[in-house]
Amino acid sequence: MPLHGDNHTVTASPALRFYAHVPYCSSRCGYCDFNTYVPGEPGRGSQAQWRRAAVAEVRHARAQLGDDDRPISSVFFGGGTPTLLPVSDLASVIAAISQEFGIRQDAEVTVEANPENVTPGLLDDLLAAGVTRLSIGMQSADARVLSVLDRRHRPGGAIRAARLAELAGFQRVSLDLIYGTPGESVQSWRDTVATAIGTGVTHVSAYALKVESGTVLDRRVRHGKVPAPDDDFAAECYEIADSHFGRSGLHWYEISNWSAPGHECRHNLGYWRGDDWWGLGPGAHSHLAGTRFWNLRHPQRWIEALDSGSDPRDGSETLTADQQRTEATMLAVRLADGFDPADLVGSGSEALMGDLRGRGLVESIGHRWRLTRRGRLLADAVTLQLLDARAA
Ligand SMILES: C[S@@+](CC[C@H](N)C(=O)[O-])C[C@H]1O[C@@H](n2cnc3c(N)ncnc32)[C@H](O)[C@@H]1O
Ligand code: SF4
Q: What is the pTM of this model?
């Protein structure tokens, strides 16, 4: 297996990453509209077929990328529920990536895990397969909130999973949280934040619950069975999270992500900084040098395409230079590294930055600027102002 160290020849090309989408869940949470299938759904494809097609897609990616010699900087198995697959399936994909591209010695390899699937045996197998980071879907420490979300695990499940991961030897464990669930109280969210911190993990993601159209939650809200999430409550939750995480040494590095220094998710940072990545699996999106493309969404169709040696791609778009700048602005604003207004807006950005600072939305960090906590709550409005100023 070719392995490459830190001192691998640096090229002008950005890092190359792999995302692998595992489209299976035991049951569907009422709020989730991700491309995932539960047992018995038609066209789901078998897990053995997923493994064969996933390995075939790695080889297909190699053929498409020709002699582009960039060993992989990170791999991320997301879903769906990757921990529903035998670890040997994930290991086959890692081995195929390693054979075809090489994996950097310092690569980050993340697997998303649902608490109810985490066992000491699974964790040992993941470590042996080369997985370096576990991202556990905790969501909440409140049984009522978990029930509104239709999660299968109990409040203690994620804490137990995080402890087991630490005992097994994982140095990088992250917890995913959701705030703003109908029925959640300020105290309940405070407890969730404190519980997450108490596990000692070095990374947390916290997202506001979004009511996605067509989901069970959407129907429940429309029929008045549960109230719609409240924006002011969500903003309060964000402030609580940011202040508690910050005080316990987990600093924001992207609007919805906090980590101990050096424990940022490098894979996701790659997305936000415009790196290249190949997304394998049904419906997965890829980005290579300003072109985006995406796979057939339905597992059976994606499997059939790869089984017959065809391209599993369903569509593509190449961003114009202007679209690329818009996207770069939207992403850069979200990062704690901040941005240079001259890059995003061009000349004449001083007045705008003065105005945003006056309203408490941005702060300067050397030559760069970044959002304050208040600015993060109003990030979309700040982004629009930056985009408008560029267009003016
Ligand atoms: C799609 S899941 C995949 C990983 C794993 N199955 C889990 O549930 O943690 C990744 C993350 O997206 C979050 N998510 C899915 N739908 C969401 C929504 N409508 N609003 C906020 N977060 C959402 C999940 O809660 C989870 O933390
Ligand atoms: S939130 Fe996670 S476990 Fe729930 S349906 Fe979505 S992907 Fe599956």
A: 0.95
